[in-house]
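sorry to bug you again but im stuck and you know this stuff better than me. theres a chain ive been looking at and ive put its sequence and its fold in token form underneath. id like you to explain what the token line says about the fold, in plain words if possible. anything you notice is useful, everything is just below.
___
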Amino acid sequence: MTDPAQPLARYSAWTRRGDFVFLSGVIAVDPAAGKIICGYDDLPKAVANRIGRTGEFSVDARDGPVIAQSWYVLDRIRATIEEAGGTMGDVFKLVQYFRNLDHFPRHNTVRRMFFPDAPPVSTVVEVSAMMPAPEILIEVEATAWLGPQP
């Protein structure tokens, strides 16, 4: 099992309020290892191959960073929602921040793997920078509802 998201500073990774779970923005950083996910080589080989590694240096160097970070972020969201008692099907809202909106189509391909049926409602925003380093390309916050379905 993948570890849930961990904060990089003094804030909660998530909180539950009634039937709702709110996640702080999740980035592709493993705080325990002090490592930023920068490409396919930072993921398990089977995952990298499944999400798009081609073995062609020019393609993987261009697409790998955003695809690997997208998978890592969404997988941390999945693990965090499961820790809270839900599933990815309970996530109904995403706010996605990009350093470059040109990355959205590649992120969206990975997002379909985590939301194969109905995607959550979404907001997409381009920002000039993200903490803690320029290598961070994407940050995603999520909201889930764990109450009974109507």
Observations:
- The radius of gyration is 15 Å.
- The first helix runs from residue 45 to 51.
